[in-house]
Amino acid sequence: MDLFEYADELDYGELHLKVDEETDLHAIVAIHNLNRGPAIGGCRFIEYDTTDDALRDAMRLARGMTYKAAISGLDHGGGKAVIVRPPELDDAQREKLFDVYGEFVDSLNGNYITCEDSGTTVGDMNVVKGQTDHVLGYSPDDGSSGDPSPVTAYGVRRGIQAAAKHQWDRDDLEGLHVAIQGVGSVGYYLARELDELGVELTVTDIDEEDVQRCVDEFGAERVAPESIFDVDCDIFAPCALGAILNDDTIPRLKCEVVAGASNNQLAKPHHGAQLMERGILYAPDYAINAGGLINVAQEFEGYDREAAMTKTKEIYDTMLAIFERAERDGRPTHQVADEIAEERFRG
Ligand code: NAD
After folding, report:
1. Is 96 considered catalytic here?
2. Residues with Cβ within 6 A of ligand 1?
3. pTM here?
4. What domain range is 30 assigned to?
5. Residue 347 pLDDT exceeds 90
6. Does 96 share its domain with 221?
7. Which of 128, 142, 175, 269 is deepest in the core (most CB within 10 A)?
């Protein structure tokens, strides 16, 4: 990969690298844009085949965070860290590695604020906290924000309500049928929110216990994972994997709305247009699933879950604004969301 070419393509920004021989730390911090404020984004700690893969991941994800923060009206830019996970690592080595990572984050003077992501834990963030104040999502006992999933689910519920308003001019969800793919953390809390509002649920998961919990608690119907795309429903809510809206699945959908928590739901950008052509209203993923980011960003003001929920409630207005502009301009919702975010972070 030509690094500067790729950076230009993604409209960068800054890249910071740290290598520490003693702990085998190979870390990247990608800061996409700082126009709205310090960049927030998680720290990934997974194995990569090549350094290019790690760089691409950090850069692509940091850019996504800029859009997510801007569409949510947060005074933050987008950043992301990637630590290439060494193949062998015991607990003591892990702690030393996150110590050095904390020093690295501190050296960026608050332009990048780190938090948990795939492969990192609250425990790792506690170690980072020992070296820098520029960390969020460490132990809730120390005034941090804790599990973001219930807040994310609440935001998705607000987005679903906005979709129902736009698509059917409805202020309630009573009697609507929602099919949820993945009832792990966010999907489970979403099912609970929707059940309370009188929604009929169909769920699937590769984990049978997660499915059973929804059957027992909410009377949900169950289907096999591969059949979720064929469920005749009003709303399909992806809460498991990315790239699930693609050439194979879109023709099978029997819903009028897609609105769920998963990141990167569109396999390719043109799949957003394909949904529009089929008359399916798509809730852009990074706008509807921003509750987790809103929750963690709330720590800046002294964490208060009520305040985080109040800000997350606004996802309803964000989604309605996207849907209305998309309808007015006859354009796919994901393009309109990008446009609104860009207007905000490019100023
Ligand atoms: P999770 O791992 O707790 O839940 C995901 C569930 O999907 C698991 O129960 C898993 O068994 C299931 N699953 C995996 N493959 C499946 C398949 N093929 N078919 C059906 N189910 C399958 O994760 P989560 O925290 O609930 O996040 C769900 C999605 O939402 C992810 O894409 C995540 O990136 C996104 N997201 C989460 C948050 C948050 O606050 N947790 C915030 C923003 C976005």
Report:
1. no
2. 148-149, 152, 181-182, 184-187, 204-207, 210, 225, 239-241, 261-263, 289, 292
3. 0.95
4. 3-136
5. no
6. no
7. 128
